[in-house]
Amino acid sequence: MTGRIAILGWGSLLWDLDDLAPKVAGDWALRAGPRLAMEFSRISPKRRMSLVVCLDPDEGTPCATHVIRSCRTALGAAVSDLAARERAPLHRIGWAEASGRGEGRMPEVVAAVGTWCAAEGWDGAVWTDLEPNFRATTGEAFTVAAGLAYLRSLEGESLAEAQRYIRRAPWTTRTRLRRALSADPWWRGLRPPRS
User: Fold this and answer.
1) How confident is the model at residue 195 (pLDDT cuts 50, 70, 90)?
2) CA of 131: how far to CAs of 31, 60, 128, 182, in Å?
3) Measured in whole angstroms, how far is the alpha carbon of residue 52 from the centre of its chain?
4) Residue 193 pLDDT exceeds 80
5) Which residues of 150-171 are buried (b: 16+ CB within 10 A; e: fewer)?
6) Backbone angles phi, psi at 6, to 5 degrees
7) Closest CA to 156 of 105, 109, 191, 108
């Protein structure tokens, strides 16, 4: 497929395009993408084992996504660009076309993004499709209480990175864990990490 391609984001991509920066056009259109279920239920080795937000149909809350235009007109090139930025294999980048074709680990997300593309005049869209891995990493199912306990177990740079990431995530990413943190005296009392 060739045409007008959207990149969807909801986490660090919004403040850190990294090597994707020269491959996009314009600025992020906030809240312009489809609402998708997400939660801070992924533990990221890249981010010092802190919790990061990912699409999570089981534990997630529908949240706004944000859109930036790819400079690419070939969907495969846009997938490769995002995979390089995420340092992820190609099969961990979801994609959908306005025509209804697509690939991703969640068929409902592929369908929703394809419908959104058709309604909003995009030929296709790509997104990061990394899975929740809280249970695989900790041996415990993700719950808000388990997420809070995990964050409390972090120290030093891992805790600082978790603070940076969660606090910088778009305010529209109002997951159950994020709402719990906003009311948690321990989290609210942490000193802001140095950038």
Assistant:
1) low
2) 22, 12, 9, 25
3) 8
4) no
5) bbeebeeebbbbbbbbbeebbe
6) -95, 145
7) 191
**Averaged pLDDT, 62-73:** 97
Report the pLDDT value the prediction gives residue 123, as an integer from 0 to 100. 97
Instruction: Tell me what the pLDDT averaged over the chain comes to.
Output: 95
* Contact status, residue 12 vs residue 18, Cβ threshold 8 Å: no
Q: Tell me the residue type at 33.
A: G
pLDDT at residue 117 in the model? 97
User: For residue 18, with 0-12 CB atoms within 10 Å meaning exposed, 13-18 middle and 19 or more buried, which class applies?
Assistant: exposed
CB-based burial label for 51 (10 Å; 0-12, 13-18, 19+): buried
Distance CA(44)–CA(138), nearest Å, equals 12
What DSSP designation does 2 have? B
Place of tokens 């990912």: 54
From the list 126, 9, 1, the residue with the least C-alpha distance to 73 is 1
Tokens of 126: 């790509």
pLDDT at site 130? 95
What pTM was computed for the model? 0.94
- The two structure tokens encoding residue 2: 């060739």
